[in-house]
Design brief:
The protein is of the alpha+beta class and 282 residues long. It folds into two domains: 107 residues, D-amino Acid Aminotransferase, Chain A, domain 1, CATH 3.30.470; 156 residues, D-amino Acid Aminotransferase, Chain A, domain 2. It is built from seven helices and 14 strands. Strands 7, 8, 9, 10, 11, 12, 13 and 14 form an eight-stranded mixed β-sheet that branches. The protein has a six-stranded antiparallel β-sheet with strand order 2-1-6-5-3-4. The longest helix has 18 residues. The radius of gyration is 19 Å and the shape is globular. The relative contact order is 0.14. The mean pLDDT is 96. The structure holds pyridoxal-5'-phosphate (PLP). Pyridoxal-5'-phosphate binds next to α5 and β12.
């Protein structure tokens, strides 16, 4: 991976990446029973780490997996971020090796990886997502669990069809979210985005973009929207920790231009990150 020491912290102990392992008896490995977070470090500082760690702890509580103290996790995250500069910092909490006593030998793993190449715009293929909450609550709705298989498969089928990623669509043609991002669009000057109550992840980037848009005087409507609504949009964008906010230039056959409001939100988001982290904006 090059440059920084990409050592992994396992329960706080540094381990070389190639030696970092989890037991094959851990239900994190066997069943995807665990939770995780993906954060972005800018010049060694993580944007909204408190929010990410709170969401991690909430996910672990939904799974009934005990966690170490959030302040300890925050220290481990800071440790990896400050050694890595611009990076993706992830935290995983595994279910442990005894399903009868959740958390037995559970591992809290903190990794840092170089940022992936991030394109300037995306094309999306609508994909039906029968596994998604889609507005029906279960005990794990809103939890960021390690069971991401269906999301990964949706991205793979979109790529196989020549698109950059999938856009998950619910049973009544509802626009949901992406496998790893939230979606929003501009229609007649109004920012519309699927409501959290519809079972989408409470995206930390989406919350920040809503703040930026509100500050810019843009009206925001969170609701339940069908795909036809997206077809009426003037601009479409994705929001996620790693991608920040990126314009969408196609959803299936419908083409869009990377528009001025998306650009304004992009600049506003970068200003917000720089202000919160005390960075000098290039
Ligand atoms: C399903 C899903 N929706 C939305 C997001 C975006 O969330 P955030 O902005 O907190 O990264 C993610 C991030 O991984 C995700 O997995």
């Amino acid at each position: 991976m090059g440059a920084p020491p990409w050592d992994v912290l396992i329960n706080g102990e540094p381990v070389a990446p190639e030696a970092a392992t989890v037991s094959v008896f851990d239900i994190g490995f066997q069943r995807g029973y665990g939770c995780f977070e993906g954060m972005r470090s800018y010049s060694g500082r993580v944007f909204r780490s408190r929010e990410h760690i709170e969401r991690l702890v909430a996910s672990a509580q939904s799974l009934k997996i005990p966690t170490v103290d959030p302040s300890v996790i925050a220290g481990w995250v800071d440790n990896r971020a400050s050694a890595s500069g611009d990076a993706v910092v992830r935290v995983f909490v595994t279910g442990g090796t005894n399903p009868a006593i959740l958390g037995t030998n559970s591992k809290t793993i903190v990794t840092a990886e170089p940022l992936p190449g991030i394109p300037t715009a995306l094309t999306l293929l609508p994909v039906r997502a029968p596994w998604h909450s889609d507005g029906t609550d279960s005990e794990l709705t809103g939890a960021k669990t390690m069971s991401y298989g269906p999301n990964v498969a949706a991205t793979q089928s979109a790529k196989a069809a020549g698109f950059d990623d999938a856009l998950l669509v619910g049973s009544h043609n509802h626009v949901l979210e992406g496998p790893t991002y939230s979606i929003g669009w501009i229609r007649q000057g109004v920012l519309e985005t699927p409501a959290l109550g519809h079972g989408i992840l409470a995206s930390i980037t989406r919350a920040a973009i809503v703040e930026v848009a509100r500050g810019a005087g843009i009206t925001i409507v969170e609701g339940v929207f069908v795909m036809d609504r997206l077809a009426e949009a003037d601009e479409v964008f994705v929001m996620s920790t790693v991608r920040e906010i990126l314009p969408v230039v196609a959803v299936g056959d419908r083409r869009y231009l990377a528009g001025p409001v998306t650009n304004q939100l992009q600049m506003g988001f970068r200003d917000l990150v720089a202000a919160e982290l005390g960075l000098v904006r290039p």
